[in-house]
Design goal:
By secondary structure, the chain is of the alpha/beta class. It is built from 14 helices and 17 strands. Bound molecules: adenosine-5'-diphosphate and magnesium ion (MG).
Length: about 400
């Protein structure tokens, strides 16, 4: 078990400077934060620490400035949003993340105050896990808190090098929740365990899929992933995307596991640009037609499987090209069924950037899912059984 901020007595934090690695890699539009979900997710940890008198130094990356000061990905708008979300805390901003100015700003913090550092990736040393850069970051604080699960699969200075130089390395509340849910899904899901998988590429998810398919009692396949499975079964999929490298693996999975369910009808069109020529096809897809969504009868089956009494549902990957309205029904159906499953007592975990935004499209709220995993690649690596550097470095209890 990993040590978390709640494992220490309240008085431990009074007057201590705490470096919190957050993931504020949020979408910006015209210099404003477009979606502040990631900022809001960190608030419980920030409130917990500041209300106990800690002084917080927040570090994050944003975008890919590749070692240069690129003001289009400055964290300044994020600091402003954070100040608005925490009106009774002082959020300071200095426009740097290391050096004398940063050191002075960290020293000048009063109990309960926050200092937001500038984008770590303005320095190429961050991604290189550079020792001197790590030392500069570590010198700002006495305690390290990891609240950036989604950055924990990277061996970067703020995730690995800097915390390694501090004695106290603790999990933040959100990171702890992420670990609890993902570990449960990976190792001992409540049964029956239903896995819903879709999205674009098997390649990005193969290790997680291997593990989860083995664990699951039912696997519902949609999205592009489904056509590779159908191709492995020898069913014609027309011009739908097939990952040739994984056809053999899919065939193997199907032979071993009769729990895998594949779409039986599809919404097809000649191309993405011809959504107006959508047709419903049952069984084989002929010619060059491409499938962009699971059909209504498949949606019906998937919905009732997900929402019948189950123990756990894990969902990663949309069922179709849900960004286009004509092809969003399958994905929306699954999202609604997942909300219903939770209502009926199941533990539901949804992961993946696009899948989470599909929840929003379906008007399924954050509170209607047991856990929304914002980890992306990190979550999949964790479920796939990899050790993540940023988790490894957190103290054990
Ligand atoms: P996540 O980000 O949730 O892990 P992925 O990135 O794997 O999900 O996949 C999401 C993308 O897959 C979406 O942009 C969606 O439009 C696309 N997609 C799913 N099914 C299809 C399909 N049949 N044809 C084309 N694109 C699809
Ligand atoms: Mg994606």
């Amino acid at each position: 078990m990993k040590a978390s901020i709640t494992d220490f007595p309240d008085k431990f934090y009074r007057g201590k400077t705490v470096l919190v690695r957050v993931d504020y890699n949020v979408p910006l539009r015209e210099g404003k934060v477009e979606d502040d979900y990631r900022i809001r997710s960190s608030l419980p940890t920030l409130n917990y620490l500041t209300s106990r008198g800690a002084r917080l130094v927040l570090a994050s990356h944003l975008g890919r400035p590749e070692g240069k000061r690129d003001m289009s990905v400055s964290l300044r708008p994020v600091a402003e949003r954070l100040q608005r979300l925490l009106p009774d805390r002082k959020v300071n901003w200095i426009g740097e993340c290391i050096g004398q100015e940063a050191e002075k700003a960290a020293r000048d913090l009063k109990n309960g105050e926050i200092l937001m550092l500038e984008n770590l990736r303005f320095h190429e040393e961050e991604e290189k896990n550079d020792e001197r850069f790590s030392r500069s970051l570590a010198s700002l604080a006495e305690v390290f808190v990891n609240e950036a699960f989604s950055a924990s699969h990277r061996k970067h200075a703020s995730v690995y090098g800097a915390p390694a130089m501090l004695q106290y390395r603790l999990a933040g509340l959100q990171l702890q929740k992420e670990l609890t849910y993902l570990t449960k899904v990976r190792d001992e899901p409540d049964r029956p365990f239903v896995l819903v998988v879709g999205g674009a590429k098997i390649r990005d998810k193969i290790d997680a899929l291997r593990r989860l398919i083995e664990k699951a009692d039912r696997v519902l396949v949609g999205g592009c992933v489904a056509y590779t499975f159908l191709a492995a079964k020898g069913i014609s999929v027309g011009g739908s995307p097939v990952e040739n490298d994984f056809v053999a693996w899919a065939g193997e999975a199907l032979r071993k596991e009769d729990k895998v369910m594949l779409p039986e009808d599809h919404l097809v069109a000649p191309s993405i640009d011809s959504a107006s020529q959508v047709r419903l096809v049952r069984g084989e897809i002929l010619g060059e037609l491409k499938a962009f969504d699971i059909g209504p009868s498949t949606s019906q089956t998937y919905m009732s499987t997900v929402s019948s009494p189950v123990g756990t549902v894990f969902w990663n990957g949309p069922m179709g090209l849900f960004e286009v309205r004509e092809f969003s029904h399958g994905t929306i159906s699954v999202a609604l069924a997942i909300a219903l499953a939770r209502f009926r007592g199941a533990t539901t975990v949804v992961g993946g950037g696009d899948t989470v935004s599909a929840l929003g499209k379906a008007n399924v709220g954050e509170s209607e899912v047991s856990h929304i995993s914002t980890g992306g690649g990190a979550s999949l690596e964790y479920i796939g059984g990899k050790t993540l550097p940023g988790i490894e470095i957190v103290n054990n209890k």
